[in-house]
Amino acid sequence: MTTRIDIFSELSGRQKEAVQHTEGPLLIVAGPGSGKTRVMAHRIAYLTSVEGVAPWRVLAVTFTNKAARELRERAESLVGGDNSGLQVRTFHSFCAYVLRQDGGQIGLDPAFSIYDGDDQQRLVRSILEELDLDPKQFAPRAILSGISDAKNKMIDDSRLSKLSKSYFEEVVARVYVRYTELLATANAVDFDDLLLRAHTLFENNPEVLEKYQDRYRHVLVDEFQDTNAIQFSLARLLAAKHKNICVVGDPDQSIYSWRHADIRNLTDFQSVYPDTKTVTLDQSYRSTQTILDAASGVITHNDERLKKDLWTENNRGAPVTVGEAYDEDEEARVVLQEINRLVDEDDFDRREIAVMYRTNAQSRAMEAACNRHGVTYQLVGGTKFYERKEIRDTVAYLRLTVNPSDDAALERIVNVPARGISPRSVDAIRTIARTRGTSMLNVILQVDDEELGLEEALNKRAVNSVRAFADLMERLIEQSIILSAVDLLDLTLERSGYKRLVQEDKERGEERWDNILELRGSASNFEGPEPRERLIEFLENVALVSDIDSLEDDEDAITLITLHQAKGLEYDAVFMIGMEEGLLPHSRSLESVADTEEERRLCYVGMTRARKRLYMFHAFQRGFRGSRGAMMPSRFLGEIPLACVETVSIRRNSRTVRKVTPARGAAAGGSRGYDPTDIKRQAVTSGAVRTAQRGDFRVADRVSHPTFGDGIVIEAVDTGGDTEVTVAFGNGNGLKKLMAEFSGLKKVEPGKSTKAKHEDPELGDAFLDAP
Predict the structure, then answer these.
(1) What is the model's pLDDT at position 720?
(2) CA 737, CA 367: separation in Å to the nearest integer?
(3) Are 496 and 472 in contact (CB under 8 A)?
(4) pLDDT tens for each residue of 393-426
(5) Annotated active-site positions, please?
(6) What domains appear along the chain, each with residue ranges and CATH number?
(7) What is the pLDDT averaged over residues 93-104?
(8) Taking CA atoms, which of 3, 328, 347, 493 is between 20 and 30 Å from 280?
């Protein structure tokens, strides 16, 4: 058994303090690389091995499967012996567990399906057709964003229509009502429902809530800055009886407001729990002091934060390299050159090198360069394993076997492989099912029922095909009770004809079959008694998988990853590309102080992923969303203390690299920072650096023009009686030179935005608020 000495042997003074505080609320403010996972694992070990708390009375919740797996493994290695019942889950996994155990109290069958984004969009598209609304005018993605907003504000379908203020919102409300009805018919939930329905279960069934309160005497929540209102409320409900709630987080790393995360859950935690003990972990075991000083220089420009001064016993390290390239292609080439140098000359491992960017679209140039130069890479967030057609089809068969009410799964595979059931036949089956308030498979299984009228709606060939499909599904459902997940998968592939379909694909058959075998290998991890329950667990695991779970730690390749996806990861060398106004910070954030602060936190997260080397690149011009224009270096580069930086400027068709190393005497915390506009103004004017301020306009000012829209000033030149302003405009309008006095150009002052946020920041496009 782990002893007190064993538990404390690896901990610092503050880490010990956090581990030992076991009674009452505890807030751990954990800086990047400060060992928060170690603290949580040792806290679990201390509770179970020293305080005598049974492992099954501890609940630890985090945000990714990867983080949950790492925490569970660390805790189990410390606890040793019998650690059965130890619950380390993601929020969604925990809520799914609760609903499978007690969802019957709110009318949910334990075999419910979890609809993913594709299932949701298919369902909404069919609802729009049913309501005679054009999916091109009312994009399913925008509709789903509105429904998600409502669910995260705990507004049910019956209330939303009363709150609608526009025709589009009325449409969302109408779809929401039907969407809820059809999910219930399909015995299915979406990701938001997992949280919302678990919350509803607890609020409306005190005896159920008390059961979980008694079971979990200690509740630990990781990445607390990323929780939304429902998640915080769930944690409070679970901890209400014993008050032993420990939350770990860092407001400086709150980057998910677009997923409804609320930084105030962390910053106001002490107001909710006045007797909170707060422990700040500000010693980093990850990064060099130079990287920490650079990141701190950036994040201190935010107001909404809890102050902390990061420090480390690691060495000072190399300066942060800030580089300018001509365009995105040259940027990619230079990044790969430096990566090769790190590997060949400095013995860096490719697996410990990552290239990070703001939006998924930015990976194109890097992927092309890697392919051109033969550099192996893994792309996080590319075509995901579980989104490949052969995987989705196979999983859909298994989903329908477990949950015969799952219409989304049925529609996916009812004619795959082709068996003579046309889209028109599917429409007829769907219409009958919805008219009768039943599932499509139930209609199919009653194909010979004259009262149902299915034979009249279909031609003879289609009826025979439907009858054959009914026989297939009856057989698979029967076998699911006794067969393991692997054996059922094998039977499904054979009996359905899907195995033959894939293997007859001459172009990609071998690759697709290998993918199915990979899925089969994953299913083999869910063997055991009660095979149907294990199959449900397997399908739940598939539904809740995330991008990061596909990351291969042992692959000899560099990693291409968005800044959002990089949260929680670390690398020896990090290259942040696209460090420009309009990308980071993103153009959609510039109207709001709060949004700009979140962009700064995102930059901070990227910088603090680096252990030894940090590179930050911007381009003189960049093609983005079909247009090309001059770019302004990110304001965040100008917030890095000068003493932390060395700059490089690379000119196209030139092999020379100009390096500027700061004076050694400059103080890291000094007010003077790296000025990215120095290099930029040289590039624009092809001459000496001009003074940034001319008249009322300054470089980096956000401006608006009645014809060209919003833009950013990249140069302002006093011409004597007026100011010539060079502006980089968005929406394909490019670079314009305007005379300030007569052009109608106006400054746009940043202000607090009141509009709803529906943006997926990795895609870079906002979900529409209106058609």
Answers:
(1) 65
(2) 35
(3) yes
(4) 999 999 999 999 999 999 999 999 999 999 999 9
(5) 36-37, 222-223, 253, 609
(6) 4-104+195-283 (3.40.50.300), 113-186 (1.10.10.160), 316-380+552-685 (3.40.50.300), 385-548 (1.10.486.10)
(7) 96
(8) 3
